[in-house]
Each structure stands twice: as C-alpha cells, then as structure tokens.
Amino acid sequence: MASATTYGLILLGNSGVGKSFLANRLLNDDEAFESRFSARSVTRHTEWKDMPTNIGRYTFSVANIPGLVEANQKLIDENRVEIMKAFEQCPWAVVLFVFGLNNGRIPDEDLVAFKRINDAYEFPTESLLLIVNGVPLDRPDGYEEKTAQLLEELTSIDKSHIYFVERSTSEKSKKDIHDLLYEAIISKCEPVHHTRKRDIELLSDEISRLKMESKYRQDQLLAQEAEHSKKQTLSTTLQRNQLFTMTLESKPDLADDKTRFDEMMEVIDAEHVRNMEKLKRMQENSNSAAVQQLTDRFKVENDRNKKLLDQISVSPNVIVVYEKKPQKKN
C-alpha cells in the first residue's frame, strides 16, 4: 500500500497482457507478483509492492490491478471497483497502460479498455506511458514506428510516450526490460494527481459492438497507412523513372549535336579543299584579280561557317588554319 510519501506506479490493462510480468521487472523480483501463464495467475484484486529503490527522484509503490474487459458483467463490475479504488488509495501516480499483441495487431479489447478508463480519468500525457508488451524478435522492419503511429491515432496519446517490450528469452532480456522501463519513466513521466471525472462505464452486452467499432477504426487506419505507403512507393518509382527518362532523352541531344558538328566539319573541310585547289590554279596562272576575288569569297564563307558553328550547343573549340603558299615570282 502506498504511503503519503510514496507515489503510485499503477499498471493497467486487460488480463493476459503481462502486467504482472512487467511489475516484476520494475521490482527486479520474479516472485513479487504471480505471473505464470495459468488461470490461477489472473489478478482479481489490487496488489501493492513497494519498490526497493527510487526511480529518478521518486519513491514508488507498484500497483498490479485487474483488467477491465471480462466475459460477464459481474467480473467487469468487480474490476471497475478495483481500478477506481487504486486511484483513491494513491491518486498521485504514474500510469503504465499495457497492451498485448495478437499476430502483431493491437487487440481491440485492449483499445476498448483503454478508452473507457481514459474517459473516466483523462490521463495527462506527462504521467502516462503506453507499453506494447510481448513484441516478437522476428518482427518486420519498421514495425515499432508503424504501430506507434497507429496507436497514436487510436488513443490520441503522443507516440513519444509509447514503448515496445520484446518477449523475454533470457536473464539479460529481463534486465533490458527493467532498464527500458526505468529510463522511460525517468525521461517521460512525472507523478500527477488523478481525479476521476466520471465512473468507468462498460456493459458486457456492448463489448462486442465496441470491439467491432475498434476493429473498423483500426482497419481503416491500417488501410490508409497501406495506401499512403503505396503512394510513396509509386511516387519514388515515378521520380526514378522520370530521372532515368530525362537521362535517356539528354543523350540523343548530345549525340545529335556531335553528329551535326561532324557533318559541318566535313562540309567545311570539303569546301576548304576545293578552294585551295582553285587558289593553287589561279596562282599558277598569275591571275591577281581572280586571287583577290577568291580571297574575298574565303572570308565570306569563313564568316558563314563561324555562325553555323555558334548555333551548335555542344561543340569543341575549332580553329581552321589555312596554309598560305607563297606566290610564284614571274
């Protein structure tokens, strides 16, 4: 039982999600609460155990409380009373709400339980952690991130206050869980005074409907996430294809420019050869007027060729050098 100088560390969640196991990890004592998988291990009454050491600057007493959702109304009512009694005994507390997993999915009955208890107490985020317990070691890549986002949407609790606990397979993993819970409480939580705003209300006859509503909402969010992921993949693929297409389209441009340049150089070379032959014949005939006329023509053609070369987007710098032969003396 928590004293006036001790804060409560209250574990909530349905039967079978591993509250007792996590409470034992906090206490670092396998025998503190009965946590074996059996019908007898189901918690029916609130149990308190004082922690041997502080968590940060606070002294806590751990409360292991029955779950809410049960098969009949009598058990539901008994559990409601136990939950409300725990907060009356120790209103200054940090709350750890524990979710189980069913084939990697958050069970709908756990979401129903959280919603009904949270409706009654309106837990402040600064005093609340959501713990997803029993996460398999062989989970898909990105599982925690996607599930945290989903749980944030379903509970309206910031995903920075959502933690994932792997299935314990060794003494080392038990210590890892102990360290994870300590660090989460120290870094994220402060004890807050919890006041019940209304009674916890749950009728056994409405559980099936509430679970169906939760399932529909969860399916809807999962479908939206899958569609978003599909669109992101498609967008990435389209961007890659567009870049690849642009690369392919740019290559013919370069090839076209090179082809045009080569063709232009062939024309210039051919004209140069013809003109040089004409100049040679005229020099041999000592026709100075014709030589001057041909020289002027060379200049015009050179200017024209320069303009054509400037129009080509990619071309090397080309200098055409004409060999000037000395004129023969008469």
UniProtKB/TrEMBL annotation:
The keyword Metal-binding does not apply. Keywords: Nucleotide-binding. It holds the Pfam family AIG1. One of its GO terms (molecular function) is GTP binding. InterPro entries: G_AIG1, P-loop_NTPase. Residues 9-197 form the AIG1-type G domain. Belongs to the TRAFAC class TrmE-Era-EngA-EngB-Septin-like GTPase superfamily. AIG1/Toc34/Toc159-like paraseptin GTPase family. IAN subfamily. This is AIG1-type G domain-containing protein. It comes from Adineta ricciae.
